[in-house]
Design goal:
ATP-binding; alpha/beta; 14 strands; Alpha-Beta Plaits; Rossmann fold; 310 residues; four-stranded antiparallel sheet; 11 helices
Length: 310
């Protein structure tokens, strides 16, 4: 349905997006992951025709959208990272305004507004001013505005950042229903790996403007199929013990947090005795050793060298 071909964007000589290729089939739910500055929002802006690429193309059903973006705009709903509402208007007034911009027929606009307000759980406070809403409620109005014209494609850029758990759960359930029950195609970016795991069938991982990995959850997890994941808890932490652990044969990566070490080692290798020796030689106790199943967060860290929230 949507395809990018060597899509690139340069700002002041620096490539924010560097020749990325991705595709989204009709009805799919796709996750776009990457640390801050990876190029996710720039990519979304180009796909939604808000930003013209420096090079490359965005295609809708095989046709370029760069010179003629009208077709993709008609079937696209975009939920931006920043709240895009008129705070001095009520939720209802905001939706009526956006519905008219989308050219939703007046004969069905009122019904559509009420349906969408019901969907996002804001039917009761619809006449209240948006400026009185919590951050989570504002984000739900933001999503409602993007759904008024019944888009075939919904793009959401970090829709749950900084909101309460109730609104977050409501947003996730709304997106899931839109994709699974309505057949809406979804492109979803998030700083929360568990959201992408819950909602998305395929994932693209971006870093420094490039797509560095892509595939289903199972395909991405297979990247670590030749490695073991080990969680170690220590009585205390020191830079010296971290360096000693890193030097152990068959250990490929060590990440330290507080009093724990997350270790990636060659699958099936026996590192426990060397690990105990390295730790105790610094007068530190190893209080827990646990083998773990790799997660998408581990894959992300392995590929980018950073956590998703870095």
């Amino acid at each position: 349905m949507i395809e990018t071909v060597k899509l690139s964007k340069t700002f002041k000589g620096k490539k924010a997006v560097d020749e990325i290729d991705l595709y989204i089939d009709e009805g799919e739910s796709i996750g776009l992951l990457g640390p801050n500055g990876a190029g996710k929002s720039t990519t979304i802006s180009m796909i939604s025709s808000l930003l013209k690429p420096t090079a490359g193309d965005v295609k809708l059903n095989g046709k370029s959208t760069i010179k003629n973006p009208a077709e993709i705009r008609r079937i696209l709903g975009v939920v931006p990272q920043e709240i895009a509402l008129y705070e001095e208007l009520s939720a209802y007034e905001n939706l009526k305004f956006f519905g008219e911009i989308y050219n939703v027929k007046k004969t069905i606009l009122e019904q559509r507004i009420q349906e969408i307000l019901e969907m996002v759980g804001l039917k009761k406070p619809q006449k209240e001013l948006v400026k009185t809403f919590s951050g989570g409620m504002k984000r739900r109005v933001n999503i409602a505005a993007a759904l008024l014209h019944d888009p075939k494609i919904l793009i959401l850029d970090e829709p749950t950042v900084g909101i309460d758990p109730q609104s977050r759960n409501h947003i996730l359930e709304t997106v899931r229903k839109l994709n699974e029950e309505n057949g809406t195609t979804v492109l979803y970016t998030s700083h929360y790996m568990e959201e992408v795991e819950q909602l998305c069938k395929r994932v693209y991982i971006m870093d420094h403007g490039k797509v560095v990995a892509s595939g289903s959850k199972e395909e991405l997890l297979s990247i670590l199929s030749t490695e073991d994941m080990i969680q170690v808890t220590l009585s205390e932490m020191s830079d010296t013990v971290v360096e000693k652990v890193k030097s152990i044969k068959n250990i490929r990566r060590v990440d330290a947090t507080d009093k724990s070490l997350r270790i990636i080692s060659k699958k099936g290798s026996s590192i426990l005795s060397d690990l105990i020796h390295a730790v105790e030689s610094e007068g530190i106790l190893l209080t827990n050793f646990q083998m773990e199943t790799p997660s998408l967060e581990d894959v992300f860290l392995h590929i980018t060298g950073r956590t998703l929230r870095d």
